Amino acid sequence: MFQNPxxxxxxIRRTEFGISFIIYAVAAIVMNLMAGVGxxxxxxxxxxxxxxxxxxxxxxxxRCHDLGNSGWYQIIPFYxxxxxxxxxxxxxxxxxxxPKGIGNVEDDFQALNL
Length: 114
Prior knowledge:
It contains four helices and no strands. By secondary structure, it is mainly α.
């Protein structure tokens, strides 16, 4: 879990995407509370949102890849709900092997050679 969280390559499972979404939500709440305090925090909060959004978009793109779609699908309104609840494609697809290992050729071959 959380290998290369800022990369847009590969696939991730629902669990990792859900945890990523929670991490982003908690960080956003903390940042908004800091911005409400006033002072120089507004600039810090604005700069902190850049890596936070990059993290969320990268994780969303990898989850889209697990469903066999382009990462651009995550800009569809409410698509994040589909990302949270839909099961990924079995086996490898254009974006990599199944992170669960279901249907991957190498895993099936290793199971036969017990």
